[in-house]
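quick q for whoever's on today - can somebody do inverse folding on this one?? i tried earlier but teh output was garbage lol. tokens:
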């Protein structure tokens, strides 16, 4: 790496505000080799990182000399994109705050379901804007790098099938997952609670759940007097407080009282009331039917009647009442707002229910347009991600300008944006540990722990250190390009060896060769484990499936160089691709190449299609091997892992081949973590078909 022409600045002159406040910042470095990126050299306070026990990793300690990544994707949405909050309301992404609860999704068995999650990070950046329009009218403005969940997995807004922009991307053949915001327009975004909305809400609430009455009585003088009464009692105080506030805006001040105490079967109910004739007349006027009402009145009316008489349970939204005049008004208001519905026949006591039909998409449209006050009725917790909405992609347009855009990190890794499932950023909140922004800074402000070796040596010298194994390369490759300049690994290797701490290094880079003499010396003092990942041993297939990765030949040459220095090196054949690299001929050829290069053992596992990798791989498969699409759909029908039958079949195929080439893992013949152990019964290789048979639907 050339560092000539680099620009050096002091922490006070160029570093971000958070870094400038730190006493351990040494300097910031910019170089032509990494345009738009600054390396911030810091004096680390610690080097060893404890791996959480719940992570399931087969090691307890790691070392990360670098923080941040120059290859990270930037995922951003337009500022006004509506995010589905945990209380069922919608909020623009610019207004989201860290710590708030929103909806995300989680795969549970066969279905992805809506679940509550927390916002872990929130940031702003400026990116070229694109507008995605769906068949139901839903529109989302996003950066080209943003990803949405489709019926074929996660896909970027824009991309390419080859070249530097290679990645899975949206086309007009895709449908997004979620419920959409059908008919989202300026009317839908108009602020609620104007005068017409207030009148409509009070009409629906009071006609649905209130009590208005007049009583005549005879005065002592013999004249007839009139008593007026208004009362509204609810268990949900959200709706009661809204109604009371709306009445106060209209000049009606009510008194609040306890209507009924709670018990084991019923919640307590609170009420408001008045006995003033002028206030009574004002309420009567507010809820009077008019010949023609505005759309905003209809929105308020449906919100009020839903808060008073509505329910949303078991995926069914209904409003029940026995007054045919009121039912007719509900139907009229739903027609005005384009909410599909049907009316059930009256029950034994004469109450009919008007049901919203069309699935979650229409229910969410109802909530978005009306804005009810009772949030418990808006919950979609645990519901499956299934929708009748027309969410096919109609167009993807570049808007021709940059916009301020926002993104968030959540606990589930996704969130609901304008009614469709949106991918969040990759754990960018970890970059805030130095008060750095989790957005652009993650890509352009790279932290380099220039003293990591010295700090590590002190930590390893502590009496409490038990010389447990330490893994490098499990998070970021310790031999990334900047290592050519900073040379952090030699000091790390020396510190580990001198302290008697065993360690392992996993890398794909050839820069490992630079440190082979040091690793030889370290290997004389402590166990040192080196590993290279080499998955595909067919040149054409490797170039097709890994167009940006080092060639198989170059990685085998690195294995050979390691062996020439007398060190062992394991090769990870991960992943084995069903129907492509799992034939006996391919596996035999691969193991022969590894043996000739000097590899000392091989670990393997079947392809694991996690979200993020799944959509890219399946799109590549559809383009390059369309005949295999159906087989993969069946093989991975139940999730990310290949089924147990396939893993057992692969284990039995690999066992004799590993033995033949002398590449069994020392002390075990079990495949790598994530696959099934080899069955005790040994099958004869010749009894197996050349490729795994067409799978059943599991």
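ok took a stab at it. sequence:
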């Amino acid at each position: 790496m050339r560092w000539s022409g680099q620009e050096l600045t002091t922490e006070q002159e160029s570093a971000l505000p958070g870094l400038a406040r730190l006493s351990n910042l040494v300097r910031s470095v910019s170089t032509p080799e990494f345009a738009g990126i600054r390396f911030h050299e810091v004096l680390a306070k610690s080097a060893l990182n404890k791996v959480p026990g719940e992570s399931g990793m087969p090691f307890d300690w790691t070392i990360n000399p670098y923080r941040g990544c120059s290859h990270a994707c930037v995922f951003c949405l337009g500022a006004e994109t509506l995010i589905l909050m945990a209380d069922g309301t919608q909020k623009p992404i610019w207004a989201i705050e860290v710590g708030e609860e929103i909806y995300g999704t989680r795969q549970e068995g066969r279905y992805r379901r809506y679940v509550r999650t927390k916002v872990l990070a929130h940031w702003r950046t400026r990116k070229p804007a694109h507008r995605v329009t769906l068949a139901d009218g839903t529109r989302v403005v996003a950066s080209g790098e943003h990803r949405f969940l489709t019926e074929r997995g996660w896909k970027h807004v824009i991309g390419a099938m080859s070249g530097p922009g290679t990645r899975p991307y949206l086309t007009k053949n895709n449908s997004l997952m979620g419920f959409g915001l059908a008919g989202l327009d300026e009317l839908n975004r108009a602020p609620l609670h104007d005068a017409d909305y207030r009148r409509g809400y009070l009409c629906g609430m009071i006609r649905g759940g209130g009590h208005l009455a007049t009583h005549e009585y005879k005065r002592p003088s013999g004249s007839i007097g009139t008593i007026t009464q208004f009362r509204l009692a609810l268990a949900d105080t959200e709706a009661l407080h809204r109604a009371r506030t709306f009445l106060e805006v209209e000049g009606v001040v009510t008194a609040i009282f306890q209507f009924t105490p709670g018990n084991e079967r019923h919640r307590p109910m609170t009420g408001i009331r008045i006995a003033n004739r002028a206030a009574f007349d004002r309420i009567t006027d507010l809820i009077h039917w008019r010949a023609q009402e505005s759309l905003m009145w209809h929105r308020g009316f449906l919100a009020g009647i839903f808060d008073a008489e509505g329910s949303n349970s078991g995926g069914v939204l209904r409003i029940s009442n026995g007054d045919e005049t009121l039912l007719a008004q509900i139907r009229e208001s739903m027609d005005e707002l384009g909410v599909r519905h049907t009316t059930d026949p009256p029950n034994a006591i004469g109450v009919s229910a008007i049901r919203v039909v069309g699935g979650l998409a229409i229910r969410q449209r109802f909530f978005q347009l009306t804005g009810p006050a009772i949030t418990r009725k808006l919950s979609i917790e645990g519901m499956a991600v299934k929708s009748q909405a027309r969410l096919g992609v109609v167009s993807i347009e570049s808007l021709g300008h940059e916009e301020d855009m926002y993104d968030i990190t959540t606990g589930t890794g996704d969130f609901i944006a304008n009614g469709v499932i949106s991918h969040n950023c990759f754990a960018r909140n970890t970059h805030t540990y130095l008060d750095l922004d989790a957005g652009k800074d993650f890509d352009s402000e790279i932290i380099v722990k220039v003293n990591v070796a010295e700090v590590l040596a002190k930590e390893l010298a502590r009496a409490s250190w038990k010389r447990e194994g330490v893994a490098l390369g499990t998070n970021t490759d310790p031999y990334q390009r900047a290592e050519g300049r900073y040379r952090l690994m030699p000091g790390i290797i020396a510190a580990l060896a001198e302290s008697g701490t065993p360690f392992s290094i996993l890398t794909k880079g050839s820069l490992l060769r630079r440190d082979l003499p040091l690793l030889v010396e370290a290997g004389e003092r402590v166990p040192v484990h080196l590993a290279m990942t080499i998955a595909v041993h067919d040149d054409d297939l490797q170039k097709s499936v890994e167009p940006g990765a080092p060639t198989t030949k170059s990685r085998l040459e690195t294995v050979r160089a390691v062996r020439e220095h007398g060190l062992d090196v394991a090769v990870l054949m991960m992943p084995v691709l069903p129907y492509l690299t799992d034939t006996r001929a391919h596996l035999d050829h691969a193991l022969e190449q590894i043996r000739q290069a000097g590899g000392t053992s091989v670990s393997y596992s079947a392809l694991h299609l996690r979200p993020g990798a799944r959509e890219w791989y399946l799109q590549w498969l559809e383009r390059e091997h369309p005949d295999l699409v159906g087989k993969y759909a069946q093989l991975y029908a139940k999730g990310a892992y290949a089924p147990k039958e396939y893993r057992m079949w692969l284990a039995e195929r690999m066992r004799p081949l590993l033995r033949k080439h002398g590449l069994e893992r020392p002390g075990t013949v079990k495949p790598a973590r994530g696959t099934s152990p080899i069955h005790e019964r040994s099958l004869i290789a010749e009894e197996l078909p050349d490729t795994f048979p067409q799978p059943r639907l599991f």
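fwiw The radius of gyration is 33 Å. also Residues 534-687 form one domain. so keep that in mind when u check it
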